[in-house]
Amino acid sequence: MAGAASSSHSSTHLTVPAGLFAPAWLPPGGRGNGLRAPSWAPIADIPVSQVDAVLAALRQARIPAHAAPAPSPVRVITPGEGTPGAMWRLRVGSTSYAKAEGLLMQLLRTLDS
Fold first, then answer.
1. Which residues 6+ apart lie within 8 Å of 14 measured at CB?
2. d(CA 99, CA 104)
3. Confidence (pLDDT) at 14
4. Sign of the dihedral defined by the CA atoms of residues 35, 92, 21, 53, in that order
5. Residue 40, CA distances (Å) to 8, 27, 84, 92 in order
6. What per-residue confidence (pLDDT) applies to 96?
7. CA triplet 10, 14, 17: central angle to 5 degrees?
8. CB 92 within 8 A of CB 40
9. What angle, rounded to 10 degrees, do the helices at 51-60 and 97-112 form?
10. In degrees, to the nearest 5, what angle opens at C-alpha 57 toward C-alphas 110 and 17?
11. CA–CA separation, 31 vs 90, rounded Å?
12. How far apart are CA 104 and CA 58, in angstroms?
């Protein structure tokens, strides 16, 4: 047969549980929503208490996202709020940025109230 290759060696496959290793794009200590993207863009710094709800909402909307502790110091952008506490930097798939921005504007209003 032309073009066919045969081998007497049996193929071996290494199987590793999916949750054993974090993807390379996920910063140490970070959490993702399970969706992947070819590139990422930071979109917001959010309180650690809102991370799980935001990641879940973005996953439901099929928007790749991950969050990790934000580098210190995080600048307070709303006057009078004082120290922001533990903040995490949220990143979304670059191609989904506009969709994520709209969803976050709605979602963060409901989480703050």
1. none
2. 9
3. 43
4. negative
5. 44, 12, 24, 5
6. 95
7. 150
8. yes
9. 140
10. 145
11. 10
12. 8
Residue with tokens 């049996």: 10
> How high is the mean pLDDT of the chain?
77
pTM exceeds 0.85, yes or no: no
- pLDDT tens for each residue of 14-61: 443 444 445 666 777 889 999 989 899 999 999 988 999 999 999 999
Side chain identity at residue 107, one-letter code: L
d(CA 73, CA 83): 10
- Token duo for residue 98: 């506009």
Residues 6+ apart with CB under 8 A from 89: 42, 44, 45, 67, 68, 69, 70, 71
